[in-house]
Amino acid sequence: METLSVMQSLLIALWVAAIMSRWLGGGATLTLRFSPLMTGLVVGVIMGDVAQAMIVTAALQMIYMGVFSPGGTMPAEPSIAAAIAVPVALLGNLQPEAAIAVAVPVGLLGSYLYQFRFFINTFLGKYTDKAVESLNSKSISRSIILYPTIASFLLFVPLVFIALYLGAPIIADVITALEGTVVIHILEVVGGGLAAIGIATTVYVIGRKDYMVFFFLAYFMSVVLKSLEITMVAYAIFGVLFALIFVQSQKGKNVQVANNSTGSTSASVDDDDDYDDGF
User: Residue 66's domain spans which residues?
Assistant: First the structure.
């Protein structure tokens, strides 16, 4: 049974704890927490298979494109999901869709773990109150930065380490044993559906009806041109060209509207002059 080493499990656990504690760059760490891409990259580097790790992580990213965090609270934790699902996928040679089905419940459990971190921080609040009462700036910094960070590492490192070192190989072996069965087919179908839901949610939230034609154009281009095996770089170039054409057409339209507005203003001024001359 292929397993993660102690060092690999520990490094990934430390990375997750650093993200969840906001120790890496303070508020900038939120970007790392809300997106699995960086966690997938780190896992790929640690496990020595960056290419496959990023393929799996790209599928996970599509799910969490539609996940938003009002007030910093998320229904799932993408970084924890990626930290567990990507090693499982690499150990079991899973398809990205199957890894998605593993990541979803892990991400949900991670959200409860993050809420438990808030619960722990409530006990640390009394140190902040005392520091504020004494107007001790160093004590305030320790109570709101150092102590919560230490608590986060003590919470996340052991649990993620155990999940990776003991749990990931077992999950990978179980899924590998089920390969070719209806169970794996269901996992892949569900995983593909979750990715579609993530994209649909994003389009619904930030999409504009007058721009939806570009979304459908890109989708049907990918379907029609699939047999040509066009790379994402080529699609990106097409996207840039379509964007430039659209921008240029809008500029011409705006210039025409501006000219019409200027002409109308001049006509109004002439009419006013004629009106004044008549009196």
Answer: 6-206
